[in-house]
């Protein structure tokens, strides 16, 4: 479930990018959940035509997924099928990460690939013809050879999974069978907590919408594209492509079937988030251990990356010592290491805190624990900045203990007076960073303290959404100030004020990007 400030932040992003009307539809769907068209019209009090256009914009930019849901009919009636619309909250947040995605591509490929990614990020989803038509008047795409280069670069992006075919326009979700509806128990588990959480409606829709793997990342080079430019221009293929794309999108709203002859492409956010997750894991290992450990850890990521099927994978596939070493020596830093030294580094990675698990002489990355370590580091940093060094030491003690501790025990452990310890603990409890329980033994009352990391992560994430919203509003204000100065002219004393505002905005933008990194640790990873 999306938190209060998470919804406000997402709506603010949509408002900035598409205006208040589209944001109103988005806000309605985030608060009410998936709705049919008539309900969206009723709640937003907008005309049906306007709501349809807003939905088209959200679909075009991959922020909304239509789907068909089978529901039980009344007594003696057949099941009914409803057409619903669901906002993809994660994809809305990804809109502020476009610069990060482009930076990843620029590190691996040339400028043409970056330009292709930028085009798809800007327009949401496009057909191959529309993508290449956008480059026809440029230097790179002005000749047949240039169009071949464009196709080759597009092929590279698809093979690297940075670009994918768009999902099924309107996937069908049938009623779950009795076996599917029953809770699933983990094999060998004994406690009540061993039941796996059922998939949410959003998860079911996203899974149903994914095209088959062979189609999702399949791009065929077409030598005819760009071969006869004059003929293409005379036939106005660009306009035809726009019309076919619009028809496909409108069929989503009308519940029809999109034109299957038009293959639409979009940026694969999932792959970019996976790469950013890897980056955070590497930096966490580097901070906790050293550069050598980070080098070996990176090699393990590279060796197992192709086997990762989803973002929140708990662990990687097992790797042997030889396969890890073969990957390590591919890097310049890794070629300085011997096999024995790499094995010693793996021993360090598998010790407390275990970033790597060892089973039968095979090593696998423990993503779940690595991300939890990153989350703990982030929370401890917040506690340090908000409550001070002594509070940080108390929080760290309670976090490591993982159980209730009495005030005197905490005071003795960090060598601080009991009264001061109680005051600091009380402040953290009032800020919802600690959990407190009272134990009464006769006339004496004891206060016990504990860190509930699960609840705390949710609280911290909502605070981060709140902070991101405030930063975005401040950035928008500074931008308006700059526009006013530009309108008046930047000569004389106004030039100094303009430069100052420019620096302030740059600092705010940098802070927002760093804050978004922290949001990803708690929400996306």
Automatic annotation (TrEMBL):
Give every RNA polymerase III Rpc82 C -terminal domain span.
Answer: 154-373
> Which biological processes are named by the entry's GO terms?
DNA-templated transcription
Q: Where in the cell is it found?
A: Nucleus
One GO molecular-function entry = single-stranded DNA binding
State the UniProt keywords alphabetically: DNA-directed RNA polymerase, Nucleus, Transcription
**Superkingdom of the organism of origin:** Eukaryota
Question: Domain named DNA-directed RNA polymerase III subunit RPC3 winged-helix: which ranges?
Answer: 379-439
Q: Name one GO cellular component term.
A: RNA polymerase III complex
RNA polymerase III subunit RPC82-related helix-turn-helix domain location: 9-65
How far does the signal peptide extend, from start to end residue?
none
Task: Identify the Pfam families for this entry.
Answer: HTH_9 (PF08221), RNA_pol_Rpc82 (PF05645), WHD_POLR3C (PF22536)
Q: Which PANTHER family match?
A: DNA-DIRECTED RNA POLYMERASE III SUBUNIT RPC3, RNA POLYMERASE III DNA DIRECTED -RELATED
Assembly and partners are described as:
Component of the RNA polymerase III (Pol III) complex consisting of 17 subunits.
| General function of this protein | DNA-dependent RNA polymerase catalyzes the transcription of DNA into RNA using the four ribonucleoside triphosphates as substrates. Specific core component of RNA polymerase III which synthesizes small RNAs, such as 5S rRNA and tRNAs.
Family as reported in the entry's similarity comment: Belongs to the eukaryotic RPC3/POLR3C RNA polymerase subunit family.
Q: What is this protein called?
A: DNA-directed RNA polymerase III subunit RPC3
Give the species. Answer: Populus trichocarpa
